[in-house]
Amino acid sequence: MATAEETEVEEKPKKPILKILLLVLVILLLLGGTVGATLFFSGFFNKKAVASAEEELEGAEKAAKGEEGAGDGKGDGKGDGKGGKAPAKPEKVKKDSPELVRFEYTYKQMDKELLSNLTGTRKVMQIQIAFMTSYDDRVFKNIEKHEFAIRGALLDVMRQYTEADVNRPEFRKELADKLKEETNKVLTQYEDFGGIDAVHFTSFIVQ
Q1: What is the pLDDT of residue 1?
Q2: In a domain, 113, yes or no
Q3: Mind listing the pLDDT tens digit for each residue in 130-150?
Q4: Which range marks the domain in which residue 43 is found?
């Protein structure tokens, strides 16, 4: 049977361990408090709070801008999928042009023949021509109105050619193109519009 003295002897070794644990706990608490106080007084927690507030404010501004772009129809037009509408494409500007009443070709023969001497020879060139146009009859009315000016211009063209020119295979086509060009030039000068698409020969004599 253990005596009171033996029990007291067994309990004594436990006391130093408790004291050591308490001492370590106190030291840890002191260290934690010291670190926390240092961070607090150095403004560490204030910086985090400010940064958090700034992030929240920036997020709010972005959200507000996104709503404005989606609501007012003034998106940046880049198709970014954030609610902005792309602007409408530019429309082509229409250009005024002479009115085309019909597209089929019509013809008008000049009443009188054209007669001119060939340069450097006694031979003469006698032709009769018909004008072709895809425009309305106003073109032919303009030809009748300015017939004398047109005849004079066409005779000036004819007298520039020689007998050698007439013998060239491509001469008739070349002459027809030149007569068309001169006729349109006269009409444009007096009526601001030509309208002759081609000149055709209904008679062509060189003698």
Answers
A1: 45
A2: yes
A3: 999 988 889 999 999 999 999
A4: 15-71
